[in-house]
Amino acid sequence: xxxxxxxxxxxxxxxxxxxxxxxxxxxxxxxxxxxxxxxxxxxxxxxxxxxxxxxxxxxxxxxxxxxxxxxxxxxxxxxxxxxxxxxxxxxxxxxxxxxxxxxxxxxxxxxxxxxxxxxxxxxxxxxxxxxxxxxxxxxxxxxxxxxxxxxxxxxxxxxxxxxxxxxxxxxxxxxxxxxxxxxxxxxxxxxxxxxxxxxxxxxxxxxxxxxxxxxxxxxxxxxxxxxxxxxxxxxxxxxxxxxxxxxxxxxxxxxxxxxxxxxxxxxxxxxxxxxxxxxxxxxxxxxxxxxxx
Length: 293
Prior knowledge:
This protein is of the alpha/beta class and 293 residues long. Helices cover 39% and strands 28% of the residues. Strands 6-7-8-3-9-10 form a six-stranded mixed beta sheet, sandwiched between helices. Strands 2-1-4-5 form a four-stranded antiparallel beta sheet, covered by helices on one side. Strands 12-11-13 form a three-stranded antiparallel beta sheet, covered by helices on one side.
C-alpha cells in the first residue's frame, strides 16, 4: 500500500534523505525511528506529495505521491509533526470543517471524542498542547482512511491517552489499515509496530521485523563475583572496567556468550543477570556503531 523506492531529496550537501526504500502493507504498523533532523518528517512529506524527490519513487495505493498527489490525499489520514490550526476556531468548528471535507461518519467522530476527550467549545488558541494533539488525532482518524501517516502522534499526550492511542491503532491495523508512524517513544513503538526502520542523517541504517530487530541486538550481562580480585581479573579478560564485585559486558561479534561463559568457569560467581532486550537498546546499539565508525 505504501512504497518508497530509492527516494532521494538533497536540500544541501549531506542534508536531506538518501536512497530511502521500504514498504508498508495493509494491516501493518511500521515504525520510523530516528533523532530530530534525521529525515522522518521529510519522508512523510514526500508521501503526502508536499515535496518532489530528486530521485526514486514514492507511491500509495499505486498512485505516484507527487504526480498523483490528489488521488493519494484521498487515501491518507495525515498527522503532521508540527500542528498548525486556525486559532480563532473552536475544536468543534474544526471538526465540523473536517467532517464536511471528508464526508466523515458522525458516529465515528463521537466514538473518537469518547476515546480522546477534550472540551470542543474551547478556542484552539487557548488549547493546551495535549488538547491540540487530541483534536488533531480525532480529525485525522475521523477520515477512516485506508492509510495513515502519523508524525510523532503521541506528542503532548498523557500516559492514559498514549495507551488509548495504541489501542486505537491496533484496532485500525486489524481493520486492514496501513499505518506508518514516527516516534521517539521506544516502548510504544516496540509494543505496537510490526516492522521498523532506523534512520540517521537521511539514510536508513536498518529495517526489520520489530521482534527480530530487538533479538538481534547486543545483549548486556552483569556478573556478580565473590571478590573484587576475581571481578577485576574477569573484567580484564572481556575488556571492561569492574565496579567493585560487579562486571557488566556486552556480547557481540568480538565476544560471544560461549566465550564469556568459558572465562567465568574460572571464578566463583554469585549471580549472572541478563538485561532485558528493548528497542531503546537496539537504537543505542546501531547509533553508537554509526558514531564510532
